[in-house]
Design brief:
The complex is a heterotrimer. By secondary structure, chain A is mainly alpha-helical. Chain A contains eight helices and no strands. In chain A, helix 1 packs antiparallel against helix 2, helix 1 crosses helix 8 and helix 7 runs antiparallel to helix 8. The mean pLDDT of chain A is about 90. Chain C is an alpha/beta fold. Chain C starts with a strand and ends with a helix. The chains are: A mainly alpha, B alpha/beta, C alpha/beta. Chain B: This is Amino acid ABC transporter substrate-binding protein.
């Protein structure tokens, strides 16, 4: 009975998953671009920029995701009109920016000083040295922790329903409420879907890491 | 859908056609609240949904539904994120201060639910060390808090996001009883939840639609007229019986508490 | 005719501690000079001050008569190659790309030109078979030879060597020293901070002895090693003679 319902509802669950994936892709991309920029600013920038960056990071890491979602949907939209989805992308994306900037900052700082020195000693300017020497190495270090970020943001998308983004969790809730029960089975299926996406994402990222790994960059055991 | 809307907005912008912007109203619903509003097969369903569609047709309104979790609905209306609230919304004094109600179209009592195999009665279910569940922010939650918890009856109150989780928690033995509105209780039972009603709390609790305080979009008149029209045409009864075959239809408007400003005469769109 | 590299009055302080107290030296075209002295005496700092990896507090550096200033720094550095103690090969790049990146990205050579040049320099250091290897796959001695090839590929006017063998196991120093000897004999202009007596004796035109942030004495190897003027120099030579003599011998045998 419930399996039949779940089977019939699968298109809606998949649609919810699709919304969740779109949200995930958008927020991770936003976080990637801004997080990398923020990391570079925090390492190489003027101290005023550096402190602004650190403040941004502290704020967005210190506030719970649900609160950020509500703040963006009910607060920021007073000034800029946007949909629930956009508000979710911004709230979760900026939060991810803070986390990703930490990942990238750590990765950049783990590149030995000598690499920058060798590049500069050749007559490479600092910006070009960052682009050709530092970042290609740092990004290899970053993939491991970035995989964690992928997983935790996938889970965070399930919070977006509080501002009206009908994603996978919400679609699951619809089935629960229209059948008035089956919480365990329905959310078991939903959990399985998150799990599969998470494993697939991790698998792809590890695969990618393997492809760009060169001797000297093997994933550390820890 | 979003793409379609965005496309339409772009097209309208390019043509500079402002006349075509027949304003679409956004109706906030909590789509996990049968029989009033829920989603099945990707479609919004429920008494409030169908009735709202009928009213919209009757009054020439263009309405789209937006699902928000229950605790978000009233703030969203107050903020103008949605234009009206369409669900099984109880009329209360606190709410009347932040929004304007349409004429009430329903009246509810509260039911005390226990597990089907429980031997608690209405007294033991609400007293003396019992743990009682209700939806957080609901009128039931407020009622238990004000009348049982604060009266030191030894009741512990637990809030849930919805009644399904509350009932499942009761069936696993984590709480003793759940207090819901009559129609929620009937829906739970009709969907096969192993629960039984051990008592009714007479509330005569009116329910209505709601708009932003002060009715800036001048919707109340149309909503009230629409409600009366579908009531008189028999459409209302059809809709209610589609979802709750046994429900008795009450005379609309039901009780209109005098603490509600929008029930002070003249009531827009309604005359006796 | 002025010297190729003129260093004048270089001073550098770290906090209260003055590492370089006004150091001057000249390097003629084709000359190989070796800088020696006790550790902490400012030899490496001097080298870094010359190409401004560590900007000096005072003093000037001239290459071919042109004074080094922040504005022309990157252009000067293209002509003053630097070989590091711990190689600093670009970890993520294959040997070939480590060598071509400078010529291609900085000097603007075409891909084939840069590649030809890289192959020529790799053959010069005897590692043509390691083109496709990554730095982590090479021994320390091989890495240092690649880094010398990387320096050579920029076709610099002068190469600065900062203790090029001191991070190597004793049995690996020989291969690096041999490459450096060959460069010296081919007329490469080199300034080498090193305690390799073997190299200093056979390949250097002049030895510079530094102590306490000053140049204490300088002269041809025969004079400085066999008839040092200063007691400090004598004591230092006795000390490294004991320690390095064996290692150098072992290295040359390899």
């Amino acid at each position: 009975m419930i399996w039949e319902i779940i089977w019939n509802q699968m298109p809606y669950l998949l649609h919810g998953l699709w919304i969740a994936l779109q949200l995930l892709a958008a927020l991770l991309s936003l976080g990637l671009v801004l997080g990398l920029a923020l990391a570079l600013i925090e390492i190489y920038g003027h101290w005023t920029l550096r402190w602004t960056g650190i403040l941004f990071e502290r704020v967005f890491r210190g506030v719970p995701a649900v609160v950020l979602l509500l703040l963006f949907y009910y607060g920021v939209t007073d000034f800029i009109e946007m949909s629930s989805f956009m508000a979710a992308v911004l709230a979760l994306g900026l939060r991810s920016t803070a986390y990703q900037s930490q990942i990238f900052r750590g990765a950049i700082q783990s590149v030995p000083q000598g690499q920058m020195m060798a590049a500069q000693a050749m007559g490479m300017g600092r910006a070009r040295a960052v682009g050709w020497i530092i970042l290609p190495q740092a990004l290899r270090h970053a993939i491991g922790p970035w995989t964690n970020e992928f997983s935790s943001e996938l889970k965070a998308t399930s919070l977006a329903y509080v501002i009206g983004v009908v994603e996978l969790t919400r679609q699951g809730k619809y089935i629960v409420s229209s059948t008035q029960g089956n919480v365990l089975i329905v959310f078991g299926v939903v959990a399985l879907m998150y799990f599969v996406v998470n494993r697939l994402g991790n698998w792809a990222l590890y695969k990618f890491e393997g492809r760009i790994t060169v001797p000297g960059f093997e994933r550390r055991a820890a | 859908m979003r793409k379609f809307v965005m496309g339409a907005v772009c097209a309208a912008g390019m043509l500079g056609a402002s006349s075509a912007s027949a304003e679409t109203l956004t109706a906030g619903v909590e789509a996990a609240f049968p029989p009033w509003a829920y989603v099945e097969e990707g479609e919004y369903k429920g008494i409030a949904i169908d009735a709202m569609r009928a009213i919209a047709e009757d009054q020439g309104l263009d309405v789209e539904f937006k699902d928000l979790p229950w605790p978000s609905l009233i703030p969203a209306l107050a903020k103008g994120k949605i234009d009206l609230l369409v669900t099984g919304l109880n009329v209360t004094k606190e709410r009347a201060e932040v929004l304007d109600f349409s004429i009430p179209w329903w009246e509810n009592d509260d039911e005390v639910l226990v597990s089907a195999d429980s031997d608690l009665n209405v007294v033991t279910a609400l007293c003396c060390g019992a743990t009682v569940g209700a939806q957080g922010g609901s009128t039931q939650f407020g009622w238990i808090e004000a009348n049982l918890v604060e009266a030191d009856t030894g009741v512990e109150l637990r809030g849930y996001e919805d009644y399904v989780t509350a009932v499942e928690d009761m069936n696993t033995g984590r709480i003793d009883s759940v207090v819901t509105s009559t129609d929620t209780a009937e829906t739970l039972i009709s969907k096969g939840q192993p629960v039984k009603i051990v008592g009714t709390i007479q509330q005569n609790q009116p329910q209505a639609l709601a708009v932003q305080e002060g009715d800036p979009n001048e919707l109340l008149g149309k909503l009230n007229a629409g409600i009366m029209n579908i009531y008189k045409s028999g459409q209302w009864e059809q809709i209610v019986h589609k979802y709750q075959p046994q429900a008795s239809i009450r005379i609309i408007p039901t009780t209109m508490p005098d603490y509600v400003d929008s029930y002070k005469k003249p009531i827009p769109g309604y005359s006796e | 005719m002025s010297a190729l590299l003129e260093v004048e009055g270089i001073r550098k302080k770290y906090g209260q501690f003055e590492v370089l107290k006004g150091v001057s030296l000249q390097l003629e075209r084709g000359q190989a000079k070796v800088v020696m002295g006790p550790s902490g005496t400012g030899k490496s700092t001097l080298l870094r001050c010359i190409n401004y990896l560590t900007p000096p507090d005072a003093g000037t550096v001239r290459l071919d008569g042109e004074e080094v200033v922040p504005r022309n720094l990157n252009r000067i550095r293209q002509q003053v190659a630097f070989v590091f103690q711990d190689f600093n090969l670009f970890t993520h790049l294959r040997v070939i790309d480590n060598i071509t990146i400078g010529p291609r990205r900085i000097l603007g050579l075409s891909k084939t030109e840069a590649r030809d040049r890289a192959m020529r320099e790799l053959e010069r250091v005897g590692l043509a078979d390691k083109v496709r290897a990554y730095p982590a796959e090479l021994s320390g001695g091989q890495q240092q030879r690649v880094s010398i090839a990387r320096a050579l590929a920029m076709e610099p006017k002068v190469i600065l060597f900062d203790e090029p063998t001191s991070a190597l196991d004793p049995e690996l120093t020989g291969e690096v020293v041999n490459v450096m000897k060959r460069l010296a004999s081919e007329g490469m202009t080199m300034l080498v901070v090193s305690h390799e007596i073997g190299f200093a004796r056979s390949a250097a035109d002049e030895i510079v002895f530094m102590d306490g942030g000053h140049i204490l004495e300088q002269g041809p190897p025969a004079q400085l090693f066999d008839a040092p003027q200063h007691e400090r120099t004598r004591r230092f030579l006795r000390m490294i003679g004991d320690q390095v003599g064996d290692a150098a011998a072992a290295g040359e045998g390899a």
